[in-house]
Prior knowledge:
By secondary structure, the chain is an alpha/beta fold. It has helices spanning 9-14, 23-32, 48-56, 69-86, 135-144, 158-171, 193-198, and strands at 19-20, 38-42, 61-65, 92-95, 111-117, 145-155, 174-179, 205-210.
Amino acid sequence: xxxxxxxxxxxxxxxxxxxxxxxxxxxxxxxxxxxxxxxxxxxxxxxxxxxxxxxxxxxxxxxxxxxxxxxxxxxxxxxxxxxxxxxxxxxxxxxxxxxxxxxxxxxxxxxxxxxxxxxxxxxxxxxxxxxxxxxxxxxxxxxxxxxxxxxxxxxxxxxxxxxxxxxxxxxxxxxxxxxxxxxxxxxxxxxxxxxxxxxxxxxxxxxxxxxx
Length: 212
């Protein structure tokens, strides 16, 4: 997802009270909510999915991660407009970091589930290691996920879907759910902004895997 360059993006993020930049701050939130589950979306875009999830499940904590500050600034603006009509969402926080650095912010066994929604497919072979379902990312996720923690992955990119199936299988993950055309099923599904726009043009693939 691309966003117009915004030189004030960092400044806009820094004045948002639920934008977290330091490990000690996110750890304090987790400690203060030690009886709650922590759900993390990596590559949240403008935040449609994570906002809806936090709204539907106010008993737990939801954290949206977006590496691009300009896109995250757009997500903050969108959230503020949403909250003007629907009220403040106290269990939702935003962060910005590269997914490979996840262990720099979270401790072992802290995350219940990681959502990967419509990640960049990085189609060129030389960029394979950048795919969020590559082995090097799966290793980092394993550290922060709780025992039997899950990854929930959605994409409309057939190539990335097939790559992810192989990568996850080779890593030894347990497949709980695999869908070749998610929208032709009746399972519960919270759509992302991207999903709403592009699902009419082809199938949405979904995988739910669990660390053994």
